[in-house]
Amino acid sequence: AAKTEERNTFRFYTPMMHADARKRLLLGADLRQALARDEFYLVYQPSIELRSGRVVAVEALLRWRHPTRGELLPDEFIPLAESLGLIRRIDSWTMQNVREQIRRWDLARLPPLRVAMNVSASTFGHPSFVDDVKQAVQTNGLPAKQLLIEITESAILRLGEDTERTMHALHALGIGVAIDDFGTGYSSLAYLKLSAVDYFKIDRSFVSGLPGEGNDVAIVEAMLAIAKSLGIGTIAEGIETKAQHDFLLRAGCGEGQGYLYARPLAASEIERMLLTPNARPGATRLRLVPPE
Ligand code: C2E
Ligand code: MG
Ligand code: MG
Ligand code: MG
């Protein structure tokens, strides 16, 4: 019986695996063309100062407008881009576009926003990364303090000792460094060198259990306490409910991002939101922002 089952299993799965590999192959071929065909674009998710309800920053998030499959999210193509060796070029495209967007918002007379961007491990760990960033910032006379580079905790662990040097070099340029998905890397905090870190971004997986899950409450409170004693800023990800907002505000978290306030938006929507404060999503609908 086992043998029959095995054979059936074999027959059942093989075409599936082929289909999957084929799909990836095709997607990879498309991905190689995507930059040249100008199919990437960025959306921006506001980050709210919890105390005031003000939008103080945005995070740039990559989207791929695929010619036949429509909008694809990073989880559907970043790992593939990494395995095909395309990620450095993509991250560099993002950097350039973030830089241009900061300049356009500045020309439109928006209040200066901090703009965060994500980089993959192989980009962050590349020997020329700091020079690339330096050049990108200097070319446009971009205030370095408006830029925040996000690197995941697991990428830091994977990269090892060079990360610390890179973080310090960015820090010396005045560019902010955030540890993204903080708490998910299973790292001992003692191992992480934190002196050049400006923000922890507390991962959504901990925020989602607030305020009911005792475990998440304890972990989040511990992360906030460490951040506070080290003078590191805190940004909670994936805030979806008023109860999560209230908990984080009371626990002393600095900023929050999440669908409660705003989804990732087009640059033009960010502009409208900040130039007409009453149109701010969340603020008006959810009345989180006390009138000033
Ligand atoms: P991340 O940096 O942790 O970004 C947060 C993700 O959570 C985003 O997904 C965002 O849309 C989503 N999110 C925000 N608020 C909520 C919420 O309230 N509820 C829920 N359920 N989700 C929320 P997204 O845009 O799909 O990005 C996924 C990841 O892809 C990012 O995680 C980041 O690591 C990576 N990524 C995004 N853009 C780039 C890029 O330009 N370069 C590289 N290398 N990676 C990128
Ligand atoms: Mg991020
Ligand atoms: Mg994150
Ligand atoms: Mg996350």
Automatic annotation (TrEMBL):
Stretches assigned to the EAL domain: 24-278
Descriptive protein name: Phosphodiesterase
Species the sequence originates in: Dyella tabacisoli
Residues of the full protein shown: 609 to 900 of 900
